[in-house]
């Protein structure tokens, strides 16, 4: 299967630059994965699309304000560092700019010396290991000095940093938001619980590899990035119980999907687990746990649109995306959402 098979034409003006004032006011395309039929709703309609006994699996990872703007020592030339992975003992794997100036031994300063750093190693692929020096608690220093690492297609400065966090985020560690969850409000979650929908959480710390394009002509040759994820015992038990009782497991976002599918047994049984996953889901994959997916609209030729196509079929997904373009849906991180499942009632719109 070719990368170009997942291309679609997207007008630039449909790439959402800012979040809506009300999180759950975003539009929701409802796609029947079996028939390809779709309907147009709003995210606040979600309770009417789920049934008692279903469960939602949310990714509770929280985004680090991981973008640091500083200067090089001595001389004062500007630099930018993006934290990717905590390697322990004050050392982080990072993306840096300008790379040609930030070689091993380079000294950096942020916030008038409140945070200083040294490049300790240059990694294959261009990333750097950087050791940071600071007083107090690193996450508090980062909260003061860091900026949100918004995706490269968002050019507008974010006014409220919490709008790039889900309302249920709690475990800090992501370099990008699990954006399918940005549509939820506390009130909507309570409505869902009141309607008999169970809610469980997993943690997957989103890496910037999620934005890297697939450069290989054949998708099977793509080297998938690794991300750290955790399935708590109570979530594993919830999934097993839901399946045993005939309910649907609906993952919120491709990150939650990749987490549960990474650690499920072939028969779908789940157990508590933590570790690194580089699972690459594309058409032909047999889902072991997931019955439905709530997701945003993804970039052309990305691993994410390939995952969605594995669930609903490439032809159905590309037809739905063409419909979304015609209907002027908002795309990507701050855009609208899609709910994909089987046996959906898509006979009415709204």
Number of DSSP strand runs: 17
Name the beta content range: 25-35%
The shape, in one word, is globular
Q: In CATH terms, what is the architecture of the largest domain?
A: 3-Layer(aba) Sandwich
Task: Determine Rg (CA atoms, Å).
Answer: 21 Å
The helix tally amounts to 6
Mean of pLDDT? 94
Strand order of the largest sheet: 2-1-17-16-14-3-12-13-15
The unreliable regions are: none
Kindly report the name of the CATH homologous superfamily of the largest domain: QueA-like
Please give the domain count.
2
**For the report, how would you describe the main beta sheet?**
9 strands, mixed
| CATH class call of the largest domain | Alpha Beta
Question: How would you describe the overall organization of this protein?
Answer:
This protein has 350 residues and is of the alpha/beta class. It has two domains: 243 residues, QueA-like, CATH 3.40.1780.10; 79 residues, Thrombin, subunit H (Beta Barrel), CATH 2.40.10.240. Helices cover 18% and strands 28% of the residues. A hairpin with a 5-residue loop joins strand 1 and strand 2. The chain is globular and about 65 Å long. The model has no long low-confidence stretch (mean pLDDT 94).
Which features characterize this protein?
QueA-like; Thrombin, subunit H; 2 domains; 9-stranded mixed β-sheet; 6-stranded antiparallel β-barrel; 18% helix
Question: Could you give a short description of this structure?
Answer:
The protein is α/β, with parallel strands linked by helices and 350 residues long. It has helices spanning 138-145, 186-194, 233-244, 254-263, 303-312, 314-326, and strands at residues 27-32, 38-42, 55-59, 61-63, 67-73, 78-88, 91-97, 107-110, 115-122, 128-134, 171-174, 198-204, 227-231, 249-252, 273-277, 292-296, 337-341. Helix 5 (303-312) packs across helix 6 (314-326).
